[in-house]
Amino acid sequence: MFENLTDKFERAFKVLKGHGQITEINVAETLKEVRRALLDADVNFKTAKDFTNTVKEKALGRDVLKSVSPGQLMIKICHEELVELMGGNESEINIKGNPGIILMSGLQGSGKTTFSGKLANYLKTKKGKNPLLVACDVYRPAAIDQLHVLGEQLGIEVFSNKDEKDPVAIAQAAVQHAKAKGFNVVIVDTAGRLAIDELMMDEIARVKEAIRPTETLFVVDSMTGQDAVNTAKAFNEKINFDGVVLTKLDGDTRGGASLSIKSVVEKPIKFVGTGEKMDALDVFYPSRMADRILGMGDVVSLVERAQEQFNEEEARKLQKKIQKDQFDFNDFLGQLQQIKKMGNVKDLMGMIPGMGKAMKDVDIQDDAFKHVEAIILSMTPAERSNPNLINVARKNRLAAGSGTSIQEVNKLMKQFEDTKKMMKMMSNPKNMMGMMKQLKGMKGGMPGM
């Protein structure tokens, strides 16, 4: 995500490296590179110009603290301004009402229907709501079928009427159905439309007028960059939406839409889609996004994802097993499955400060753990509970049974032993302190890392 922009920002800050103070000359050089980085990322020209002018004004107006280098100060100012550019604070979705009504709008192919399913899942699992999905795309029967498939997967009811060709009538009937059946949120998925199509734009305006939603969201493909911003502007003039949803952000290496939309349209980004799975949906936090753009990672989001999968009772049991040196392949498999639930492995690694650049050219597939899982699932219950039973003959059987090689089985056995040792060390506070001191004294870092 945004790797091209991150690289260019890093190069821009190198201009200040080694300088004892900030001067008009070295600030101008740095900001020339920053402006170029923003324009290359397909950021609106006026937005890029205003951004660099504000940063210059703040940089030259500040006394450099003795403990802060000019480069660090420039990064701090750029971070503050990036956060401001993207909206400052996160913006809550308005689902108050009886029921709360969310109207989806956007272009064809922007991912509205998929996002509608993700949002329903988010409101059900994270907010404790009882959502109703409504299929109002009367022009594309496949969209209605798609919403029904998603609803079935998520255990969420979908309201539709293939015989009715007026989306206004369907939306109104759905709201009445929600009131009668006790649904407290209604998510209305509409047809994709072009901003230049007056009839279609009038139609969604009529839907909005008829059901008076508590929240109108504009869904846009982030990879379309400046086009996304222009489209958002046209839609906003017609239907005055409340917030923006950026889909396919995991494939966006530039970041132009994220950085331009708020300043051009004056509407906040509320959610971002970061994958195809139904839980690949994040609230948009400007400060966390600025961290990632500047290569600082996103530890808060990483911890939140981990906490969602964390089971306190299971953790206590695992700790006891580790302390008794009883950690086995069942536990190892359980830990892998928890990591998988947290999301794409490469994306998770990118949230660790400093790891984004290291992972740039590393290709980690979504099914990165499948060989490991296949080997463990080929073990007998006794082998999983007592890894010491696994001798050469058993390793050969495991390789054949899992469709892997003896080398991969040996590699897994070593990874398991290393993990077991590390976990045992971390479960003892005294060992943990000693390990920290040891790491601190290792100038060259850990071998093989």
Low-confidence residue ranges: 442-449
**SS field, number of helical segments:** 21
Strand element count? 8
Spell the H/E element sequence: HHHHEHEHEHEHEHEHEEHHHHHHHHHHH
CATH structural architecture of the largest domain: 3-Layer(aba) Sandwich
Under CATH, the topology of the largest domain can be stated as Rossmann fold
| Domain module tally | 3
Could you estimate the helical fraction of the residues in percent?
Answer: 55-70%
Can you tell me the CATH class of the largest domain?
Alpha Beta
| CA-based shape | flat
User: Could you give me the name of the CATH homologous superfamily of the largest domain?
Assistant: P-loop containing nucleotide triphosphate hydrolases
Beta-strand fraction estimate: 5-15%
Radius of gyration: 26 Å
- Could you give a short account of the major beta sheet? 8 strands, mixed
Intertermini distance: 23 Å
Mean pLDDT: 77
Structural class: alpha/beta
Order of strands, main sheet, comes to 3-2-4-1-5-6-7-8
How would you summarize what this structure contains?
The protein has helices spanning 3-14, 24-40, 45-60, 70-85, 112-125, 141-154, 167-181, 198-211, 226-239, 256-265, 286-293, 299-309, 312-323, 329-342, 345-350, 355-358, 370-377, 381-385, 392-402, 406-427, 429-441, and strands at 100-106, 131-136, 158-159, 185-190, 215-221, 243-247, 269-273, 281-283.
Describe the structure.
The chain has 449 residues and is of the alpha/beta class. The chain folds into three domains: 3-85, Four Helix Bundle (Hemerythrin (Met), subunit A) (Up-down Bundle); 100-294, Rossmann fold (3-Layer(aba) Sandwich); 302-441, 434 Repressor (Amino-terminal Domain) (Orthogonal Bundle). Helices cover 57% and strands 9% of the residues. Strand 2 (131-136), helix 6 (141-154) and strand 3 form a beta-alpha-beta unit. The protein is flat and about 70 Å long. The protein starts with a helix and ends in an 8-residue tail after the last helix. Residues 442-449 have low confidence and may be disordered.
